[in-house]
């Protein structure tokens, strides 16, 4: 073999000592295929896990819906039983004490008496038509100053039952304050004490 002369440049075919040879093209292709297979395996595993979680969630929701339907049916059944029991108890009470179902009669007479007392600024008449507590205490009364402001009171309609033992009587109350007149629509609230209708108070009329 002929020794290389000093200063002689290496040929293109011979790799320079200390330099890595360029990677083979076939090796690069193999690495790319292997990486693609690895990525595909990861994607398939992720898709399988997501499908399993979705199936589990749907099963839990179906179970909860079935349980809720059962509870709703139970509540409806209990409500029906309570309703039947209440109707039976009411019928029995009416049979034993008919006055319980009949009630105190119509509130028209008391409504007219209260309206007349308001129109006449009659404090004693209002007190006589007012409800009383078991200890004899009267329902709240209009202050004398407010009573003196009333110019007129006119019933604008028949009493209407809001409850079995409560009725509202529409009254147009005209008041005079320092020469200025204003009509105020009110409801005279009637209740029942001792089986008789009486005045519980006065409220703004609900239009």
Indicate the CATH class of the largest domain.
Alpha Beta
Q: What level of helicity do the residues show?
A: 40-55%
Uncertain regions spanning at least 5 consecutive residues:
1-30, 62-102
Write the element-wise H/E pattern from the N-terminal end onward: HHHHHEEEEE
Q: What is the residue-averaged pLDDT?
A: 67
Strand fraction: 15-25%
Q: What is the tally of beta strands?
A: 5
Which structural category do the helix and sheet elements fall into?
alpha+beta
Count of helical stretches: 5
Q: Can you summarize the main beta sheet? A: 5 strands, antiparallel
**Global outline:** globular
What Rg is obtained from the alpha carbons, in whole angstroms? Answer: 47 Å
CATH level-4 homologous superfamily of the largest domain: NTF2-like, domain 1
CATH architecture of the largest domain: Roll
CATH topology of the largest domain: Nuclear Transport Factor 2, Chain: A
For the record, the count of structural domains works out to 3
For the termini, the CA-CA separation is 123 Å
Region (Disordered): 1-70
Biased composition (Acidic residues): 50-61
Transmembrane segments: 74-96
Keywords: Membrane, Transmembrane, Transmembrane helix
């Amino acid at each position: 073999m002929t020794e290389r002369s000093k200063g002689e440049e290496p040929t293109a075919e011979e790799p320079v000592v200390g330099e890595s040879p360029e990677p083979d093209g076939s090796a690069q292709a193999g690495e790319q295929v292997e990486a693609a297979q690895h990525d595909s395996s990861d994607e398939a595993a992720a898709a399988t896990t997501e499908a399993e979680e979705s199936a589990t969630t749907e099963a839990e929701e179906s179970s909860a819906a079935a349980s809720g339907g059962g509870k709703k049916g139970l509540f409806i059944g209990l409500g029906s039983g309570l309703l039947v029991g209440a109707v039976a108890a009411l019928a029995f009470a009416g049979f034993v004490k008919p006055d319980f179902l009949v009630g105190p009669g119509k509130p028209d007479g008391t409504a007219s008496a209260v309206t007349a007392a308001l129109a006449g600024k009659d404090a004693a008449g209002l007190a006589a038509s007012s409800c009383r507590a078991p200890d004899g205490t009267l329902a709240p009364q209009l202050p004398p100053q407010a009573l003196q402001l009333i110019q007129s009171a006119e019933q604008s309609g028949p009493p209407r039952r809001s409850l079995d033992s409560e009725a509202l009587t529409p009254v147009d109350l005209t008041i005079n304050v320092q020469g200025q007149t204003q009509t105020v629509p009110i409801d005279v609230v009637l209740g029942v004490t001792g089986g008789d209708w009486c005045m519980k108070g006065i409220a703004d009329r609900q239009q």
